[in-house]
Structures are given as structure tokens and as C-alpha cells.
Specification:
The chain is mainly alpha-helical. The protein has helices at residues 2-16, 19-41, 48-72, 76-90, 99-113, 121-132, 138-149. 78% of the residues lie in helices and 0% in strands.
């Protein structure tokens, strides 16, 4: 499980004296714990790895946006820190599909559902999330579905 891999990596980073990695992994653990608390009242995914993957993808997205803003404002030092955190977090994400693989699978889902216009996008996205899950980022999936349906 991804959660166990993160705990093991945190311990290894602490023993190795890697303060940046330790700090990032502690942030990840805190975010996962917060998501667990939220899931108590709402609906939690049946698969624990799916829940953890969603948290990790959200964290990567936040850090990419932050790094971009820091670069625009001339804070390259902070942008480098954010990018370092992205590198640590991405180690625990499932392998991402290449553009060709993602396009082929999305075309197959579109053909299977019989989607022909943007009105069918919600149905297609739901199937993409179900089948491809953490192997494709939601924003990238959305863009590919739009391009396929257009």
C-alpha cells in the first residue's frame, strides 16, 4: 500500500538525516490523515490507495501552481523548494500513462459509451476516473476527453 511506503520512506529519511524529504513526507502524512478524518463523515473510496493517490495528486497540483506563482514574482528560491517537494511526492504516485496510451484508452472509452458531443463528457470522465484512476492526472484527462469529443 502507498500509505505504508510513505511511512517507511519517512523513517528512512529521518534516519538518513534528510530534513527536506522528512518535512515533505510529514506534510503528506498530515494531508492523508486530514482526508481520513473528512472521509469519516463523507463517502470514502473503497480502495485506500485511491484515497492516498487523490491526496497526492492534489498536493502536486497545489505545489505546481505555487511554484509558477513564485517564479512570476521573482522568488526562484521558493519555487525550487516547491519543485523539490513535487519530486518527493511524485515518487509515491502510480506510473503515469504516456500521451499515446492515455489517448488510446480515452478513445476506447468514448467509443464504448457512444459519446459524440461535449454533453457526454461527464459520463466519459466518470469512466476514465474509474478505469484509469491515478495513472492519469484529472486535468490532463479532462483536456484529452475534450480534444477527443471536439
Amino acid at each position: 500500500m502507498i500509505r505504508d511506503d510513505i511511512k517507511a520512506a519517512t523513517i528512512a529519511a529521518m534516519k538518513g538525516g534528510d530534513k527536506e524529504t522528512t518535512a515533505t513526507l510529514r506534510l503528506v502524512s498530515a494531508a492523508i490523515k486530514n482526508r481520513d478524518i473528512e472521509a469519516r463523515t463523507g463517502g470514502a473510496p473503497a480502495d485506500d490507495d485511491q484515497l492516498v493517490t487523490e491526496v497526492l495528486q492534489k498536493m502536486v497540483k497545489q505545489r505546481r501552481e505555487s511554484a509558477e506563482i513564485y517564479r512570476k514574482n521573482g522568488r526562484d528560491d521558493r519555487a525550487v523548494t516547491e519543485e523539490g517537494e513535487i519530486t518527493v511526492i511524485e515518487r509515491f504516485l502510480p506510473k503515469q500513462l504516456s500521451d499515446e496510451e492515455a489517448e488510446a484508452q480515452i478513445r476506447a472509452i468514448v467509443a464504448e459509451t457512444g459519446a459524440t458531443s461535449m454533453k457526454d463528457m461527464g459520463r466519459v470522465i466518470a469512466l476514465v476516473k474509474e478505469r484509469l484512476g491515478g495513472s492519469i492526472q484529472p486535468a490532463r484527462a479532462s483536456a484529452l476527453v475534450k480534444a477527443t469529443l471536439s
